[in-house]
Amino acid sequence: MGFGKNNVLHANHFRKDWQRRVKTWFDQPGRKLRRRQARKAKVAALGVRPLSLLRPAVRGQTVRYNTKLREGRGFTLGELKEAGIGRKAARGLGVVVDHRRRNQSVEGKSINVERLKAYKERLVVFPRKTGKPKKGDSSAEDLNAPTTRQTLPIPSSFVAEEPRKITQEERDFNAYKTLRNSRAEARYEGARKIRAAKASHIFTHPLAYPLILFFARIEGGRGGSQEEVIMYLLLTALFYALPCPHSKTRVLPGSTQYMPVCTHLALRLRRWRLRSISAEMGESSSWYTSS
C-alpha cells in the first residue's frame, strides 16, 4: 500500500512477539478421544436409563423454519396433565418440564400428548427394592423384557400421501390467479362497499331506470340512432338537474362524483355534432366511429 499526500510516515510495530500469542489446536485428537471416553463413562453410569431425556416436538421460529419439527426445551403443564404424568414425578421418569411454555395450537398439543403416552407405555420403571415394588413400578415380566436406551424420535412434519391420478379440476385450478383475486377482493372491499352505498342512493331517483335502459341500449354493444343518443343525453342532463325526492337539497347526494360523467357527455355531444357536420360535407356518415 502506497502513501498519498505529504503525510506522516506510519510507525509500524513489528516487535510484538506475536509467536507467543498464536492459538494452536495440536491437542484436537486427544480432546476427541477424551470426549469419547467421557461419553462411555456417562452411559455406564446411567445403567439402563435412556441416554437422553425426553423433550417435546415443537415448531421452528419464523416463516422460514415453522414447517419443521425439532426438539423443544420441555413439556407444558397442560400436556403432562392430559398424559397423566405429575409435574414432580416427570423429572424422575426422564421427562423435561418447562412451566413457561404455552400451547398455541391444538395440533401441537396433541402431538406432544401422544408422544408422552407412547413414552409412558414403553417405559420400564425398576423398583427401589426388588422385593417391595410400589405403585407405578413395572411388573416382573416387563423387567425381564428386552429394552432399548434410545429415546423416541421426532415425528415427521410431512405426512406422505398415496399416489393418485390428478383430477381435471386440479389441472384447471390456477393457484396464482386465485391468490391474486382474493387479495384484490380483500383490498378493495371497503371501496366497493362505499360505491354500492352511493349507487343505492342513485337508484332511488325515478329517472334512474329509464336511464339504465337507454344506457344498456346504446352502450351495450348494439349501437343506436342519433335520436336515441340525443334522448340519452337529454335524460342524463335532466337526471342531474332535477332534485332528489329523498333529499332536501337541489341536487343528488354526492353529485360531485358525477362531474367526469357530465364532461364525458359534453364531449360526446360535441363529437357527434362535428361528425354530423362532416357527414353533411360528405366526408363520413358514421357517427359511432372512434376519433
Query: In DSSP terms, counting alpha (H) and pi (I) runs of 4 or more, how many helices?
Result: 12
- Taking pLDDT < 50 over at least 5 consecutive residues as the criterion, the unreliable ranges are 219-224, 242-259, 283-291
| Major β-sheet profile | 2 strands, antiparallel
Shape: flat
Structural Rg? 42 Å
Helices and strands: which structural class?
mainly alpha
The helical percent reads: 40-55%
Distance between the termini: 71 Å
Instruction: Say how many strands there are.
Output: 2
Spatially, the strands of the biggest sheet line up as 1-2
How much β-strand is present in the residues?
under 5%
Q: Element order, helices and strands?
A: HEHEHHHHHHHHHH
Question: Would you tell me the overall average pLDDT?
Answer: 77
Describe it for me?
With 291 residues, the protein is mainly α. 48% of the residues lie in helices and 2% in strands. The protein has 12 helices and 2 strands, in the order αβαβαααααααααα. A two-stranded antiparallel sheet has the order 1-2. Helix 3 crosses helix 5, helix 10 runs antiparallel to helix 11 and helix 11 runs antiparallel to helix 12. The chain is flat, with a radius of gyration of 42 Å. The C terminus is likely disordered.
